[in-house]
Amino acid sequence: MASLRLYNMQAKEVGSIEVNDELFQMEYKEALIHQAVVTRLANERQGTKSSLTRSEVRGGGKKPYRQKGTGNARQGSTRAPQWIKGGVVFAPKSRDFSKKMNVTAKRTAMFSALSKKVADGEFFVIDEVAVANGKTKEMVAFLKAFNFEKTVLLVMCNSDEKVIRAASNIEKLHTLPVEQLNTYDVVKNAVVVLAKGSVEKLQEVYGE
User: Fold this and answer.
1) What percent of the chain stands above pLDDT 70?
2) Cα–Cα distance between 142 and 98 in angstroms, integer?
3) Fewest CB atoms within 10 A around its CB: which of 95, 114, 147, 185?
4) How far, CA to CA in Å, does 189 sit from each of 46, 89, 149?
């Protein structure tokens, strides 16, 4: 089993933690990660937009003017696309954009993405995610201690209201309970920080 450094909120090394090689030292599977991200984004689409075609626009049954002798192009209806208040050519219609991905593939994609973060030095484990007063300045101090300048995903073992409140005003810091950890959020953020309890829970649930 591989060993990762364990830090506290002040970015001081306080020990180490052993992680399952099959989870955090996995081969990088770019195609599977791409599939997971596309599936997530597709499932977030509402697909509710809709416009009327010429056959669905009300009215237009009467020919606007006679066929010949006016000098204008022939017209059969005022609801044709070239007319104001006419129908839309190839009008968008409501549809289901959702995609499916099996559970094993989702799991493999997520841990492949996490393993890539570990290999690139963009994965950190801290002993405990906690703030005393739930103030934004406490989380700012945490980011400054680690010199995090890009987006950070903080994965908590338990949903702590103080931590969520302290991080909510920081644009580049995103919090997530470990139960909701997914490939998209791992890839989207430059750095991933997990609480020690989160790592243990992941290994307990997914480890063999």
Assistant:
1) 100
2) 38
3) 147
4) 24, 40, 11
Q: Residues with Cβ < 8 Å from 194, sequence gap 6 or more? A: 123, 124, 125, 126, 155, 178, 202
Helix, strand, coil distribution of the chain in percent, nearest 5 = 35, 15, 50
Beta-sheet strands, E only, within the chain? 2-7, 13-19, 123-126, 152-156, 173-177, 191-195
Using CA atoms, how far apart are residues 153 and 123, in angstroms rounded to an integer?
10
Q: What is the pLDDT at residue 132?
A: 85
User: In whole angstroms, how large is the CA radius of gyration of the chain?
Assistant: 27
What are the tokens at 134? 């739930």
* Sign for the pseudo-dihedral over CA of 164, 169, 171, 172: negative
Predicted confidence band at 208 (pLDDT cuts at 50, 70, 90)? low
CA distance 198 to 181: 10
Cα dist from 156 to 59, 95, 131, 190, whole Å: 59, 36, 12, 17
Contact of 169 with 131, CB cutoff 8 Å: no
Contact status, residue 95 vs residue 51, Cβ threshold 8 Å: no
